[in-house]
């Protein structure tokens, strides 16, 4: 059984992320979407909220599992008994960073391979950071994220404006 991990912050999950998830789960037997809890970052959504949004967005994909994690990706891969990491690439700048991470992970865990998928052209510009910025100014993010995520974003931004 080929199990792969698609790790990320997913703050929030976008159609670009979902594109990679849908394409990846056709290649592997099981795809574990690892939701990173990174103490160095101040995410908009909690890990629990991000897991919930991803579970809702992928509920029709029977071989996808959403699992929160913290720490090194290689340790999470061992824990999940996975030997493949899936990463999406939007631009050459993504490749430079992802190649470095892939080589580092491979050095630390020689059995761990990284598979790069190029983002579908319609999502090549899309990032969670851009979506958060649009939402912060009250813009319509419905073309970038699932409806449920757009609602969560709107509620989160309204709550932030009240503070």
UniProtKB/TrEMBL annotation:
GO terms for cellular component: cytoplasm. Its EC number is 2.7.7.3. ATP binds at residues 9-10, 17, 88-90, 98, 123-129. Substrate binds at residues 9, 41, 73, 87. It is found in: Cytoplasm. It catalyses: (R)-4'-phosphopantetheine + ATP + H(+) = 3'-dephospho-CoA + diphosphate. Pathway: Cofactor biosynthesis; coenzyme A biosynthesis; CoA from (R)-pantothenate: step 4/5. The record marks 17 as: Transition state stabilizer. It is an enzyme of class 2 (transferase). GO terms for biological process: coenzyme A biosynthetic process. Residues 5-133 form the Cytidyltransferase-like domain. The keyword Magnesium applies. Pfam families: CTP_transf_like. GO terms for molecular function: ATP binding; pantetheine-phosphate adenylyltransferase activity. Its cofactor is Mg(2+). It comes from the Bacteria. Homohexamer. HAMAP family: PPAT_bact. Belongs to the bacterial CoaD family. Reversibly transfers an adenylyl group from ATP to 4'-phosphopantetheine, yielding dephospho-CoA (dPCoA) and pyrophosphate. This is Phosphopantetheine adenylyltransferase.
